[in-house]
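chain below, 219 aa
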Amino acid sequence: MDGLEGNLRTIRPLYKYSFSDGQQVYVSGRNAEVIQYTTTSSRFWAYLGAIPHWLYFTPLRKHQAEWFSFVVWSSGIGSIAALLGIVVAIWMLSPSKRYRHAGVPTSIPYRGWKRWHTIFGLFFGIVTLTWAFSGMLSMGPFPIVERLSGNAKGGRAVNLANALRGRGRFDLSAYAAKPPTAALASLGDFQPKNWSSPCSPESRTTSPPTPRDTRALFR
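prediction:
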């Protein structure tokens, strides 16, 4: 799924090598560097975690703008639905306990499964609301979020929302004469960090790696 990310487009084409024990590697066709390594176990947990959480399903994720809109709208609808449920539950509550349940005064006007639905709904509704709404804000769908997060400071920083929508391109010519660290630092309030690849130059190969070679790259 990560192979669909925009930051990998500069190292395509990617070649996928699969092995009988479930290992898979993606190798850059430009520099023969191993870009991604997965196992049957890691892919299984990804389908239970990150992929459904971010809706990283290939048929949808490969369409950047449509994926962005779907995530924003679905999280927005989920936030509104959770908020309405919380409002209705609080509206029906009686702090003075004017209702009775099993002969005892209670604040909840229901019995049976409706009573449990109200109790669990109040708790999980708040969790769902904060989870869905924070997820929507993380996509930067509103200009105010961009300003508050610093992404629109001075008009020089990267517009995260437009980048996620797949709109526009960066003018790289302005950074061509600068070292990579200086180019990144000039984007705004950004602290570049040095990163070293787990694949040493000696480990790179232009031929399909063997399973033993693959394990060696990621020790």
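Confidence is low (pLDDT under 50) at residues 153-157, 200-209, 211-219. Residues 39 and 122 are 40 Å apart (CA to CA).
thats it, cya
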